[in-house]
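Researcher: Can you fold this with S-adenosyl-L-homocysteine in place?
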Amino acid sequence: MSASVYVETFGCQMNVADSERAGVRLRAAGFDLTKTPDNADVVIFNTCSVRERAAHKVFTRIGEIRRMRLGNEPAMGVMGCVAQLEGAALFDNSPSVNLVVGTRATDRLPQLIERALKGEPRVLDLDERAETDKWDIPATARTSKYVAFVPIIEGCNKFCTYCIVPYSRGREKSRAAFEILDEVNALRDHGYREIHLIGQNVNSYRPKTDAGLDLFRGATPFCRLLRAVAATGIERIKFTTSFPRDFHPDIVAAINEYENLCNWIHLPVQSGSDRILRQMRRGHTVSDYLRRVEAIKNSQRQIAITSDIIVGFPDETAADFSATMKLVSDVNYHGLYIFKYSERPGTPAAKLDDNVTRGEKAERFMKLEEIQRKNQEQIYQSFVGREIKVLSERASSKSDEDITRHSTCHKVINFPRRSIDLGQVATIRVTDAKPISHYGEVLAAA
Ligand code: SAH
Ligand code: SF4
Ligand code: F3S
């Protein structure tokens, strides 16, 4: 097949990794990949369903492409979480869609596209991954040349009551450690300087065999994997997301032992009220969570903690919300993502009355944002005068003039563009702090 395919990605890092993998399979099957949808024969959207607004985005984009390509319409496909959840209903709701590809059908995309191009009107695949499917993506096929996402576990068994992910991604499935290590070694040899181990809950990692971990100790398989990945010597290692209930303090011990395990932990708490946490079925209380935070703060390194919060979960009272504000102040997060509760069809929470009004949700969102802004300003101020190491990853999505750069603790740092090249790691002295970024001068780069 010599047709051209354009893939547009929404949602989390898992989707980015899946789109990379789709690209590899498509090129291997002889397809061309294009950077814009303007002339592509096939347009594929890799979708997210985590909140209502995210799920709607694909329908807006389908309409836009249809109008843009009037008279010369491409074959259109939906893959990812919306595809898995909506299945064949997508064909009825969006007649321009000819292809629906579930979250575990990525490796079969080339054959599915071929069927659509041959004129089959409704090509659907919501099946599991085949046992023989490989998760590897060659270093040459990555979106970024310097930072690579390495999936270690996919799916989720936690079933937090508000969340659609267990339904869209299926059960937890861990990748064999030796396979992960081979990939990390290859990335290192290829010049990659930073990797992110990714998964809905990385610290729930449980491979079927020990192969690859034999030489490494640790309280849990994830702790052993962290040490094994660190021992490859790759320069910077980050990992997201950590599930609080499965967060073992030995993770902190591993970070203390290996400099290349970065000093950043994303540990979403969702709420500061035990009553709401129970309703969310998170499996931890506020004090359980704070114990984990304590262990992280007791590290000999300064580890940045970031989190996610949902405001306006059903029945969240003013007192529940005050408890969340207190927790956010107490922990003093280096970064916080705040979301307004969004009812997802089919989840247990969807049976509850979504009774916190839009106005109240907006107000709570703003109040929390204000607390976080003040905390963060102080934290960022405390970095002025300090030296930190940053990696220039890619051109900024906002401006061609800028490069996106992150510190080991995952903060954004700005400095005059020409001082370092893409892919370089620079030592920066922070000269000024903005609410969500630092400004600095380059002392050395390599
Ligand atoms: N696996 C991760 C995150 C998954 S989704 C974890 O367990 O924390 C990313 C974030 O989206 C979640 O942390 C949560 O804050 C938010 N989110 C998930 N479902 C949501 C919903 N129905 N409404 C609003 N926010 C939601
Ligand atoms: Fe969703 Fe909870 Fe699983 Fe995270 S742990 S993906 S919030 S169900
Ligand atoms: Fe969205 Fe699916 Fe990721 S719902 S957040 S793309 S797992």
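Model: Folded with S-adenosyl-L-homocysteine in place. DSSP finds 13 helices and 19 strands in the chain.
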